[in-house]
Fold:
Amino acid sequence: QCHLIASGLHEAGVEATYLAVRGVEDATKLPYPVLNTEDSARGIIKNCLELKPDIVYWRYNKKHFNEVMSALHAEGIPLIFSSSNAYDLKPFRLRPAIGVSLLKQWKRYAGQLLRGFKHNKALKLVSGIVCNNEAQINWQKHKHRIYIPNSPFLEYEEQEFEPPYAVWVGNLKYHKNPDMFVDLAKDLAHTGLRFVMIGHMEDARFKYLEDEQKVPANFEYLGKQPIEKTNGYIKGSHFLVHTGGPEGFPNVFLQTWGLSKPVISLEFDPAGLILSESIGRLSGSYDQLKKDVAELNENEALRTELGDNARSMITSRFVKELNVKKLIDFMQTVIKDQ
Structure:
């Protein structure tokens, strides 16, 4: 998303510098200037103050945000906060931990509440808020707030992977529920469908996925993949399966729909689009999820219909040039109001 936005701003004639945390490989090929920075509040603040921008567009969630916001506010530099998930806009929303003692759970909650107070205080200092999920636009009552959807990155590399298969994409975290995708592979082995998982392993509890002896024969974990390869796997799949809970607006949904594939989601339907646009299935329970996966695996005509609907929606509602124009107009409004 940062690349799409930076390139769009450059194409529109806006002088924008991409402050890249931990750096970007081969930035010389990019059309816009890139400034690499260390992954710390101190490094980000230092670079922002040296650049002296008219405005900062923040797309790094909560990480280092409180410290950076305080420093920029003191220097009179306006900042627009871009929300990418529900926890960005609801500071006191608690995430439970799985497999820990009650004492550790309460300690975790206490830490989340403390960070929530700090984040809520920092949000009051921002000059504007961008939300990528229209259903969440009123979660923060800010004078300058706007819905601007993400734009799909659809470049892909063809993958030699024999269908039929379903694909699961995301960082492996407990709240994304990757275990359920493994359960699907086991319970639907008789269908002939394979289950391919892609994503960075962030939690050691999922190390078992790398052991072929501990997963079903029709399951394969490919680890983290470049986005072009990931899109290639999505393009060759029957559909994407999403087992996580509510968040912002997953980019992988946009990638899947832009590649004319439906999404089968356990319980999350961003802005109600899956149902309203007929671009997949919202299951609501594990039993229904199994039924939906089995049905779409067998029904090619239905898969094609849902995929065509999805592609049509993406090309009409998630257009990079329109999104960038909305962002530029919003930035100008915020700057004038300082």
User: Anything to note?
Assistant: The CA atoms of residues 129 and 141 lie 10 Å apart. The chain has a mean pLDDT of 91. DSSP finds twelve helices and twelve strands in the chain.
